[in-house]
Amino acid sequence: MKRIIIIGGGPAGLMAATQLLKSDCEILLLDQKASVGRKFLVAGDGGFNLTHSESKTELLEKYDSVWIKQAIRKFSNKDFIQFLNRIGIETKVGSSGKIFPEDEIKPIQVLNAWKQHLEPKVQFRLNCRLVNFSETAIEVEENGKTGQIPFDCLVLALGAKSWPVTGSDGVWTTLFEEKGIQINPFRASNSGLELYDNWLGDLEGKILKNVVLSCGDQRCAGDVVCTSYGLEGKPAYAINRALSKMEKPVFKIDFKPQMTQQRVVEILKKAKNPSQGLKELKLGEVAVFWIKNFVSKARFTDPKELAKAIKEFAVGIKGFRPLEEVISCAGGVADSEISESGELNRFPNVFVAGEMIDWDAPTGGYLIQGCVSSGYVAGKSIARAFDSVQSPQ
Ligand SMILES: Cc1cc2nc3c(=O)[nH]c(=O)nc-3n(C[C@H](O)[C@H](O)[C@H](O)COP(=O)(O)OP(=O)(O)OC[C@H]3O[C@@H](n4cnc5c(N)ncnc54)[C@H](O)[C@@H]3O)c2cc1C
Prior knowledge:
By secondary structure, the chain is an alpha+beta fold.
């Protein structure tokens, strides 16, 4: 019987295994941690966005690489929702279109349902670390010993580098580089923004409510939280990609997105002084602190200029949070190294899937969706190849 080894029990590896359930083969799923899906559960801690409900066209726009888009076309948000429903996980659409498990379903229940779906056929081998691979066998470290396991097909779904405590430590990049496989350096994505010290004031814990952050062609509305080092929140994450392309990264905040600039000018003109104008506009503490500290006196006292500052307030950033702390990483295996199904050009029968491939997307379910779509294309491709050999037409 053919043997398929999958390494990495995150959503990408679990989905690759799922696609092989009906094939006549032995499936081993290995992970270096004592349990699978640790980052999946971390994602569950802060609002568990499994995917997004938008149309395929809108969904595809959220991804930056041609490779991941073709994988999502083959296994879309609708396919993932159907799969979840099939294993007994009912989903609901949140107010912003994100897909969550139904209220009473906890993240661990989603993971357990998925594991139970796999368990009759898939052998889980935990605390087992991949240290090397060839075209026909892997070398693993287990209980302090190393050993070889031969395979017919191998899927590597080793994750990226954030939250290494969950097992995605990025150590595999050295192994790949030694084999001549191009790895694009990991970059923080969906990261908090670090601001220069003079911008921090006494603002920790304060919230910029209902603002719009923009940079280049990226723009996102919502609330942003001030921290000891800068800003966190969906609008801050959503502009990461544009900021990372700038030599001196600067973004803009619209403190009053629900009002036109002309209306802001009118209110400022009617007020007895600029400070009173800011009060009448009901700007929050953070906006007022920044405007008063960083807008020149000449602009502050000119209603048109002040209105422009309120609508297009420029903020320079010092950088992103350390990779270990961010939600996801851009970078990883270059798509020039793989086929559409994720098979490595240099290692036939060895596939990669998930966040270890160089693609990027915002939070909001798009990351897990990208991982399961890439796991699907790897698993499906192996299943089709096996099935066509076993039952030739
Ligand atoms: C705080 C936080 C919140 C998030 N929230 C969301 C969200 O709401 N929605 C969303 O879509 N995404 C979210 N994400 C991102 C999402 O969790 C990841 O994109 C996803 O888990 C990546 O899946 P993966 O299968 O590629 O890899 P991972 O889930 O990282 O799994 C990789 C696995 O490979 C194993 N492994 C690595 N190296 C080896 C080795 N050498 N030998 C054996 N095993 C190895 C690891 O132990 C790990 O289990 C969040 C992430 C974080 C950190």
